Request: fold
Amino acid sequence: MKPFWKPLLLCLLLTTPAWATGPSSVDVRLYPLAARKGAVLLRTRWEANPSGAHAFIRTEYGWLVIDARGKWHDVPHVTLEPGTSAEKEPWEERQRLDKAFETPLDWKSPPESVAGLLRQYGFTQKDEVKPDQGRGSVSLTPKALCQGKRCSAPCVQRSLKGLKSDPQDGTQVEASFVHSGLALFHNHRRETAEEPTVGASFSESGTGTAWGVEGIEYEDIWGVCPLPR
Reply:
């Protein structure tokens, strides 16, 4: 996976006044850390900007355990809120957390927020996985989910806060990570010729899940599919 904090840092340097607006966007990141007994531990990052504002946007970091049976256990780590003034916006803290996002877990001294998940599922440093393990071994199109030459019906990807993909929409996308019966896909949708759509589009699902991502112009979302047994 390419480090995503570098383009974000560039955005910080080019930040315009808070009243200016650009394309609406949603950015949802999942980063694999470990796998054990069919369960995968990931870091998570959520940021939704439905207004396209250039001001600081609420950014949520957390942890997630998922498995091929559909279990989904997420816990928060740090949530950064907009400051009371431009001078108090937590840009530096977000930059620090973004740099730490795509790094191996400090198993000797893990954050307290993830300690409960490590105990509950028994994850240790021996279970650490490469974030690109199995990359490209699974592909997804609106017609099929394929593992090599073995194909099945397209799957509905799940992401944070109940977001789900439309399996009949989008373009082919290769898995970024495959392990424990799960495939992780990086989907992104842009309204420009320079950045064509890759993967599916996402929408909110279920009751009480109005996260403001309907009609978003830019989607950058990691989603997960269980693989047929």
The two ends are 26 Å apart (CA to CA). Residues 91-101 form the longest helix (11 residues). The CA atoms of residues 162 and 205 lie 6 Å apart. Confidence is low (pLDDT under 50) at residues 9-19.
